[in-house]
Design brief:
The chain is α/β, with parallel strands linked by helices. It has one domain: Alpha-Beta Barrel (TIM Barrel). Helix content is 39%, strand content 17%. It binds pyridoxal-5'-phosphate. The site of pyridoxal-5'-phosphate has 14 residues, from strand 8 and helix 9. It comes from Alkalimonas mucilaginosa.
Length: 232
């Protein structure tokens, strides 16, 4: 059984190797350690091994952990789960990033609820790139319109796109990653600052890097298997 520190070091090494293979720079890839359902002590182990970016799926859980670990300098919270309008305040107050924005109504609330003393919340639009295989996210043909509206909100900073391509009987994951890369390029043509592309999880991140991912979200590969009991 490997420790969190060992798994992290191994992930950093594998990411560096994959970047070398692809001719890209490891410094341009952000590893987000997805800590949902994991204990604060586990997050602290990862922090002490040098990890600073953490991803959470549940607003309440993110807020509790952010408060518990608020003394850890430079720690950065990414909200990556589905977001209902009655939970936007928790994300606006405790996260630095929100990857799962898919509606103007949620965007307006996050913008209005972002505390004035904090910099704008960095947001990514979640795209439903696998059609029927997943429900969350906007359709690819709605991206540019929503991006333009979100970019105008004062409490938010639009940084790019996110997707969770789901392989299914009809299609493997690779064409979905390729479509996301094209969409990201189209977005950057109108909003150059929106250059981040959050895609790739424990099982498919090397392929995501091949198609231009700048943020990869690894849970199991860092913290081991999850126990969902506390959310059921
Ligand atoms: C849980 C989750 C991850 C991490 O998944 P692993 O397969 O454990 O790496 C990444 N992104 C999102 C949106 C998630 O919900």
């Amino acid at each position: 059984m490997n420790t969190i520190a060992e798994r992290l070091q191994s992930a950093y090494q594998q990411i560096a190797q994959q970047c070398t293979k692809l001719g890209s720079k490891p410094a341009d890839v952000q590893l987000i350690a997805v800590s949902k359902t994991k204990a604060v002590a586990d997050i602290l182990s990862a922090y002490q091994s040098g990890q600073r970016h953490f991803g959470e799926n549940y607003p309440q859980e993110l807020a509790e952990k952010a408060v518990a670990l608020s003394q850890q300098e430079g720690i950065c919270w990414h909200f990556i789960g589905p977001l209902q309008s009655n939970k936007t305040k928790l994300v606006a107050e405790h996260a630095t990033w929100c990857h799962s924005l898919d509606r103007l109504k949620i965007a307006s609330r996050l913008s209005a609820q972002r505390p004035e003393q904090l910099p704008p919340l960095k947001v990514l639009l979640q795209v439903n790139i696998s059609g029927e295989a997943s429900k969350a996210g906007i359709n690819p043909d709605q991206v540019l319109a929503l991006a333009t509206e979100v970019a105008a909100l004062p409490g938010l900073e639009l940084k790019g796109l996110m997707a969770i391509p789901a392989p299914d009987a009809h299609e493997p994951v690779e064409p979905a990653f390729a479509r996301m890369q094209q969409l990201s390029l189209a977005l950057r043509a109108i909003l150059p600052q929106a250059k981040e592309l959050s895609m790739g999880m424990s099982d498919d991140w090397p392929l995501a890097l091949k198609y231009g991912a700048t943020m990869i979200r690894l849970g199991t590969a860092i913290f081991g298997a999850r126990n969902y009991e506390r959310h059921e």
